[in-house]
């Protein structure tokens, strides 16, 4: 028997296996069973004398896997009773065969409950481990002091004029003729990254060109240094100020409460 004939025999065997699996799983539902057989015969496993042997071998493996999954992991359900009322429930019957894989429910019965605090700690540990994995790249420091040091050590991108495509368009908005009839709107395109910015902050074209380059440099900094750019540092600085303010307020409140309790103790001792 040649290799082609052996492959054709293997294809017929895989097709018969898929037919038997569909007959067992979809028994009592001829519409679904016939649709499955038509799909396998005409689309998944079309074979003939001129078929590519490598492609046919891949198709045979696929059909065998489909038959195995259909036989072990697909369960048919039949409705046996309609809901008698709005609060009643329908009854369904599952077609469990001898080949169906039945899992154990011991893990569900003996499930361990945890508090919300423990769950948050577990999720936080998973997130921290993912951030520190080598595939995810360098992680951003969590504390402000470390973030400040990393911000100083970052590599600031260089803005080269040969990488820029600059154009000037007529301005719009308030400002009169000095804005609406002059081309003071500066538009910059960074060719390597495709980032485009526009600036019309002032009436001066020279000043707008400087501001446009500053805006583009900030965007490149945020792109190449995620979490460490100048804008991110300003946000972190504001958050750190709020944290210190809340810490001082709590300390003042504790000192006030401590002073009040000590005054009450002194009054009780005098009495």
UniProtKB/TrEMBL annotation:
Stretches with biased composition (Acidic residues): 262-271
GO molecular function: translation release factor activity
Location in or out of the cell: Mitochondrion
GO terms of biological process kind: mitochondrial respiratory chain complex III assembly; mitochondrial translation
Keyword Nucleotide-binding attached: no
Compositional bias per record (Basic residues), positions renumbered to this chain: 243-257
Gene3D superfamilies: 3.30.160.20
SUPFAM superfamilies per record: Release factor
Source domain of life: Eukaryota
The keyword Nucleus belongs to this UniProt entry's keyword annotation: no
GO cellular component: mitochondrion
Listed Pfam families: RF-1
Region feature (Disordered): 163-182, 226-271
Sequence ranges assigned to domain Prokaryotic-type class I peptide chain release factors in this UniProt record: 158-257
InterPro entries: Complex1_LYR_LYRM7, Mito_Transl_Release_Factor, Pep_chain_release_fac_I, Pep_chain_release_fac_I_sf
Protein family: Belongs to the prokaryotic/mitochondrial release factor family.
UniProt name for this protein: Prokaryotic-type class I peptide chain release factors domain-containing protein
